[in-house]
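Changelog-adjacent note: as of this version, every example in the card shows the full chain rather than a window. The one below runs 564 residues end to end.
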Amino acid sequence: MTNASDLHARHAETLDRALTAIKERSYWSAYPENLKAYGDPERADSTQSAADGKAAFEGYLGEPFPLDQNGVDGEVSGEVSPYGLDLGVTYAHVDIDTTLRAAQAAIAPWRDAGPELRAGVALEILARINARSHEMAQAVMHTSGQAYAMAFQAGGPHAQDRALEAIAYAYAEMTRHAAEATWEKPQGKRPPQRMTKRFTVVPRGVALVIGCNTFPTWNSYPGLFASLVTGNAVVVKPHPRAVLPLAITVLIARDVLAEAGFSPDLVALMAEEDGEGLAKALALRPEIRLIDYTGSTAFGEWLEQHAHQAHVFTEKAGVNTVVVDSTDDYRGMLANLAFSLSLYSGQMCTTPQNLLVPRNGITADGEPKSVDVLGRDLASAVEGLLGDDARATALLGAIVNDGVAERLAAATSYGEVVLESRAVTHPDFPDARVRTPLIVRLDAADRDTYLQECFGPVAFLVTTDDTASSIALFRDTVREHGAITAAVYSTDEKVLDAAEEAALDAGVALSENLTETVYVNQSAAFSDFHATGANPAANSALTDAAYVAPRFRIVQSRRHLPAG
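Full-length structure tokens:
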């Protein structure tokens, strides 16, 4: 059995560096994103190689997943890779009552362990997940449709950094005050009043993490680890089409908890059949006191309106906007936008959708560019980026589900097609459904079309009266419909100031004049605040102090001390 205090000491340097990083907001990452950094026999750690990770993934296929939980009342399956592979993995279906009782029973010893020991255990879980990043990449790739490099980075080290960021914020909040104090109040000529007081971090109860199909680890890890390290038990309810990455996560977490002397039931997996509605059933249970959810606006709003017994954190659908006014690096702007529209086939909550352009055109490198020319040049930039099929599949990944494919097909009828979407043949997976982006030209008057999120490889080139109108439309879009990201291109400081003011008014992160290899749909842990929580698309869905503080309370006890 592993001593929990040893785990805190083992990972103290990582925690200390993370605590520094959340204050400085500069670049730092605890986990290398280079695929070749893993499995190197020259290194002292025991990380998997790419071959080892693939073999581990293939070992799950067609087999029952090796997770031992109580209350098993059946089995579920049905994951099919967007690359055409039927995974055939079966998962235990567990009874809600049994699982929640076990979770509640496990909390008290975990609470009493205190912040230091809980942080050590959580960091050990992360370290073991990190060692299996290639295995996780295979699981993420074949459930989400991300290309392998992206699945490795976003589903592995970047997700792990987000978890570590949550642990650091939680640890800072739990330890920002003394755990014990001696209180002494003078009483004049009488002896002073003397008391000893103890202040204990008390968890809210059982937390529910509802996984999504596209980013099963990146979107789930902050809530999972923030709730766990603050003393709560966590029930993980994966998306029915993306169970394996979170099943591996839960397996590792339960192993570490058991080795450290705690109940593995502090973390449980609740897999379901597609369409079973388990998330709704769990969300309304009185035992569930915290809910983390990323996904559709409709279900996010349902959770906020009905799960009154719980503190609900949601990241919902939004309409991400780019205001294009002018640029002094036309080729750089086009290349940056082309990459942003293409990455993972636009299946990211951060992908730009609406490109707002004055109908009289823009200024580029000092020369006027009409909307027609801008549209053709942007289409050419996308075609040039994705002209080689092997390169295209490495960026696009695969279409994650039928809903995305149906939206893509429908969007061709919305307006003038500036860039047609084409099918791409994957060199390794001939059954993969791979599509390039579609760009459709609309007018600002077509509000019913472009003011709805069209999740997937669809972008709208929307003409407005002028840049001031674009900025006003951008502000209104975010206020009314939400957004996770926004961008502006302009050589005029007054325009940049107006765009930033609009972003502050609406509550959305803004990127200005991105022309290099940083893209609007990327978010760096420890530096960027992902999803501000200040517009309808996000409800405190970022990792900061406000994200972790509702997950616990401080409960005090006090008693008199003898006078003297």
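Structural remarks: The chain has two domains: 4-316+541-556, 321-531.
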